[in-house]
Amino acid sequence: MNEQTKSYIFVTGSAGFIGFHLARRLLEEGYHVLGLDNINDYYDPTLKWDRLKILKAYKNFTFIKGSLENLELLESLFEQYNLPIVVHLAAQAGVRYSLKNPHQYIQSNLVGFMNILECCKDKKVEHLLYASSSSVYGNNKKIPFSIHDEVNEPISVYAATKRANELLAFTYSHLYKLPTTGLRFFTVYGPWGRPDMALFSFTKAILNDQPIEIYNYGHMKRDFTYIDDIIEPIMRLVKKGPPTDKTPPYKIYNLGHNKPVLLSDFIKTLEKKLGKQAHKIYLPLQPGDVTETYADINELIQDLSYQPQVSIEEGIENFVTWYKSYYKS
C-alpha cells in the first residue's frame, strides 16, 4: 500500500503537549498519523523530542520536522500523503510571550494557518479541526463563556491571532465548503504539559525551594481542563465527521471543564499533592491576562454526549506523579 492509498490523519504540532497526546491516542486506536512539528525553542526542545520518542515507537507514525510557514513543504506533504482529516494544533502559544514577540505569532498563527487552509481547500480535505483558545473571549463579562457570545475584543496578540483563525476558517467554509471545526481550549494541563504553564512552573519552583509569582494576588479563576478531557472530545469529533448539517460547514466548541478554580485554591491543592508549601510572591494582573475563564459546554454535551471526567485533585496528582518520574525529583 503506497502513501497515496493509505489514509493518514495529519496532526500538526505533534511534538507539542496536546498534539502528542492526540497522536498517541490515534496511534493506539490503529490510525495512521502523519506528524509535523518545527521543534522550536519556545520551551526546552528536549521535552518535545522525548514525546516524539514515544510516538516513533508506533509503526503507524510518520514524522516530518518542518514549519507551517513553509508552504512548499506543506504542499508536498498533501501531494505525497492521503490526508482526509487534518487536526491543526501547531501554533506559537502563550499570552505573555506575545507581548514581547508579536511577529512570531503573525508568522506561525496567521501565515501558517493560511497555508493549512489553502492546502486543505486545494486537496478537498474532508474535515479540518483546528486549535483556538479561551483567550478569544477577552474580558467577556458574561459568565460562563458561550460559543454564541461576541468575541471581538481580544486583549493580547495571541488571542487576536486565534480569533483571526476562526474568522478565516469561516470564510473558507463559506467560500469553498471546507468543513472546519474550531476548538477553544480552556487552560489544558496534565502529564507531558508545557513548562510555561502555571502547574508546571509552580511544581518546579516549589520542589526547588524557589518562590512562585502569583498574578492578580491569586484572585484569578481558570477553567483548568485535564488533558484526557480534551483528547476524548477531539477523538469523538474525528469519528463523528464534519458539521455537514450546517451551511457553511463550520462549527466551534468550547473544550473546558465547566468548573472554574480560584488560582489560590489551585495552589493549595498542588501544595497538598507535593507535601510542600510554596514561597509566594503576590503581583498585580499582567497585561493580556483575563481575570476569569469559564466554559459553557452545552454543545459538547449535546453533540458529543461528553462531559469532563477528571477532577482538579486527580489531575494535579497525575501531573505531580509524572513530573517526579520524568525529572527524577
UniProtKB/TrEMBL annotation:
The cross-references to Pfam families, in alphabetical order and at most eight, read: Epimerase (PF01370)
Q: Which UniProt keywords apply?
A: NAD
Q: Which SUPFAM superfamilies match?
A: NAD(P)-binding Rossmann-fold domains
**Keyword NAD part of the UniProt annotation:** yes
Annotated NAD-dependent epimerase/dehydratase domain residues = 9-256
Keyword Lyase part of the UniProt annotation: no
* Protein name (database record): GDP-mannose 4,6-dehydratase
Species of origin reads Calidifontibacillus erzurumensis
Upper lineage: Bacteria, Bacillati, Bacillota, Bacilli, Bacillales
